[in-house]
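Progress report, Aim 2. The chain analyzed during this reporting quarter is listed below.
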Amino acid sequence: MKLVIAPDSFKGSLSAVEVAEVMKRAISKALPQAEAVLVPAADGGEGTMDSLVAATGGKKTAVTVQGPTCQPVKAEYGVLGDNETCVIEMASASGLVLIPADERNPMVTTTYGTGELIKAALDAGYQSFILAVGGSATNDGGAGMLEALGMKLLDRDGEAVGFGGEELGRIASIDDSLFDKRIAQSTFMIASDVQNPFVGPTGASAVFGPQKGATPEMVATLDRHLTKWADLIEEKTTIRLHDRAGAGAAGGIGGAFQAFFPSSMKRGIDLVIEYTGLEQKLEGADLVLTGEGQIDYQTASGKTPMGVAEAANKQGIPVIAIAGSVGQGIEELYQYGMTSVFSIVKGPMELQQAIEHCEEYVAFTTEQVVRTFFASRN
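Predicted structure tokens for the chain:
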């Protein structure tokens, strides 16, 4: 019997690699003779760099950058096994996980550190980039990142503006005379499942601002400032970001890449499937196990369990997802090849308890699922 284990992380508890290892041990208890193939996955958010680096035998380099609140943080960029492709994970430098929940405020958070990561990789000689932009704490339209790479964003008096979504409203002109020339000689693949436009009711501020700490009043202000920023970008480049698909990714950094970088976009999970060789590893499998912390209707928008289910479905392999919690709308996943979805939660409990005992609960649920699946086949 062959099982392929391809989970995402359970955020706040276990990384994708750790979840996969826990599932493997649980399978060994239920089916000692089974072959378990581990393919830790991600969808463009946290863990994407680790997944790609591990799958290709690559390496990581640590860099100290300005975090989302301008405090120094230790971030990393990855280099794939080809020693040519660099992976920048935005969450490492400008991520929501770097800020306590009660201090999150997209009016002031900046993408400057992400720009510093890119610059460090350019300085090291890399020209081919994969940009994993999920998990950001920012809503600055990529302005901070551009500043770190030499672009000057000036107010009416010709002075540089500050950082954060609030400062976008003060920008009167864009001076790109010192923008890093190496960017034009490089290629940038943006790994993101987000198709939201830059502004409007389905834009960056309205849809993602609240989870980054924005109040309704902040959302209105941020959207107004992003609109002004988009107007300036259109004047400068003739590229209209306002309603452009994917421009709203990661608080609008997707739009900055579309306007100022030689870039293209691809679903994060598709990139991970490609680089990990998941489709080849699925050959001959009897069952696929996937999962993540929360599975609900949003999972069908291109999250890891959906992408894994699609890949397995092409080969007629059943897929079972194991989640920290199961929300509304999971029936949408069935059309993509998902067989069933299980929660690890054993009964009523506080979120913190589920997080603290995640490893134990994942192991228990995996073992029961596998025992039931193969008993029914036999």
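Residues 6 and 40 are 5 Å apart (CA to CA). The mean pLDDT is 95. These observations will guide the mutagenesis work planned for the next reporting period.
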